[in-house]
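This section describes the prediction task in plain terms. A model, or a person checking by hand, is given the sequence of a single protein chain and must write out its three-dimensional structure as a string of tokens. No templates, partner chains or ligands are provided. The sample shown here is typical of the held-out split.
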Amino acid sequence: MKMPEIRNIARQWGVDARIGRSKQDIIRDIQIKEGYSPCFRTKEECEDDCLWKPDCLNNQR
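The expected answer:
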């Protein structure tokens, strides 16, 4: 997912998405607001089915 789309989602959740913050940090803050643990790019496998799963696991390899 591209940063403009991530920033749009962040704004919807009230998450700070200012320029200079990493994609990883913004997504982890969104995950907290969504009710998930802030685990973006910390696992090799995941049982959750959150919005970020495809982007998260595809970049692990």
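For orientation: The two ends are 17 Å apart (CA to CA).
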